[in-house]
Amino acid sequence: MAFPGGTIEDFLAMLAAERGAARNTILAYGRDLAQAEELLGGDLAGASAAQLSKLGQGWASLAASTMARKISALRQYYGFLLDEGLREDDPTHALPRPATRRPLPKILSHAQVEALFARAEDEAASDRPEAVRMLAMLELLYGSGLRATELVSLPISAVPRDEPFLTVTGKGGQARMVPVSRRAKQALSRWLALREQGSRFLFPSRGGHISRVRLFQLLKELAVRADLPPEKLSPHVLRHAFATHLLEGGADLRALQTLLGHADIATTQIYTHVDAARLVKLVNERHPLARPRASD
């Protein structure tokens, strides 16, 4: 069977147009598919199951997580070919199946979060713009669970006026609303009064907005001043702390999924390990069969 050229490009275009995939995702999938085609030494669209089974040899030196991403790219690609009627079979059953365990997120304790905020609040008491900005960013990272990219790229128009919500554009261009606490609103009000005018970004910098790299640096510097290990702190760790502490406080996974902007509940389920004790206690206390019977 002859396969038309350009099917990889067509697949990537579909990811962008129909699934709203992020640019970095599209670039990564494009590289994975092109590299697989190079390893096979022929047209990827027409590859047989026997040919795909040999990819494991070429991937032997890769990390399990990298191999898993490549396998995901290939499975989606061949699923696209099937949907478009360009193949009648799916050869991906022959791909290697690496046993991967998703690493558990680093966790900040409540005491560590309190120490971090205490230091940030003490420094912001001076009303220095840099210190007030740091406090506002910290409130949004931990109080609203924003990703680093979401935070630094926030437009000034996203700041709530009367409503206690922030409009955020997440992965794949998907917009969601996240709650803004009273503390965060107060910190934002202080920052807006000091922020230089003229930029469309909430946290402006020369040439646009503050960079993700600079955000990482600022957080680690704050950790040192708060007597915390700097390697334990990053925007992602604060997002994990937001999710973990919400679960400990009684939030359910579906609500957490919405707040974090996860497309799949399976992504959110990584947080259940940190709250296993509460879940077991919940079953023991609330399940009908856990209650003493009248005859006991």
N-to-C order of helices and strands = HHHHHHHHEEHEEHHHHH
Structural class category: mainly alpha
Strand tally, please? 4
The Rg value, from CA coordinates, equals: 24 Å
What can be said about the biggest beta sheet? 2 strands, antiparallel
* Shape call: globular
Strand content: under 5%
Q: Strands of the biggest beta sheet: in what spatial order?
A: 1-2
Distance between the termini: 72 Å
Uncertain segments are none
Name the helicity range.
Answer: 40-55%
Q: Mean pLDDT across all residues, rounded? A: 83
List keywords for this structure.
296 residues, mainly alpha, two-stranded antiparallel sheet, two-stranded antiparallel ribbon
Structural description of this entry:
- With 296 residues, this protein is mainly α.
- It is 53% helix and 5% strand.
- The chain is built from 14 helices and 4 strands.
- It has a two-stranded antiparallel sheet with strand order 1-2. Strands 3-4 form a two-stranded antiparallel sheet.
- Strand 1 (165-169) and strand 2 (175-179) form a beta hairpin.
- The chain is globular and about 65 Å long.
- The N and C termini lie far apart (72 Å).
- The model has no long low-confidence stretch (mean pLDDT 83).
Q: Quick summary of this structure?
A:
By secondary structure, the chain is mainly alpha-helical. 53% of the residues lie in helices and 5% in strands. A hairpin with a 2-residue loop joins strand 3 (204-205) and strand 4 (208-209).
